[in-house]
Amino acid sequence: MNLDKVIEVSILFDFYKELLTEKQREVINFYYNEDYSLGEISENLNVSRQGIYDTLKRAEKILQDYEKKLQLVKKFNERNKYIEDIYKELVNIKKEIKSGKDCTILVPKIENLEEICRELLG
C-alpha cells in the first residue's frame, strides 16, 4: 500500500467521514486506520472480498469528490501555513526586542502580522 495514499485517505476520512455511510466508514477505518486486509475486513463484516473492494473504492472516490467541492483540507493546510508564518515572525520580533533594537522599526512587521490575522479571521 502506498504511504502517500494512506495519508491522503486518512486525512480526507478525518474531515469527511460523517458524510459516508456507516458501512463505508467501517471499511475505510479497517483498511486505512487498522491496517486490515480486504480478506480480514470481508470476514469481519460478512461481505465478499469483492464487495469490500467495491465499497472501499467507492468511499475513496466520495472522499476525493467532497474535497474537490468543499476544499476543507486545502483550507485547513493554508490556515496552518499562515499560523506557522505568524509564529516564526513573532519569534523574530521577540528576538529583536530583546536585543535592544529600536522598536519603531518593528511596526511594519507587526502591521503585516495584523493583516495576515485579518485574512485568517475572514
TrEMBL record:
Keywords: Coiled coil. Residues 49-76 form a coiled coil. InterPro entries: RNA_pol_sigma_r3/r4-like, UPF0122, UPF0122_fam_protein, WH-like_DNA-bd_sf. It comes from the Bacteria. Pfam families: UPF0122 (PF04297). The keyword Transcription regulation does not apply. Signal peptide: none annotated. The keyword Magnesium does not apply. Belongs to the UPF0122 family. Might take part in the signal recognition particle (SRP) pathway. This is inferred from the conservation of its genetic proximity to ftsY/ffh. May be a regulatory protein. NCBIfam families: PRK00118.2-2, YlxM. This is UPF0122 protein SAMN02744037_01673. It comes from Tepidibacter formicigenes DSM 15518. The lineage of its organism: Bacteria, Bacillati, Bacillota, Clostridia, Peptostreptococcales.
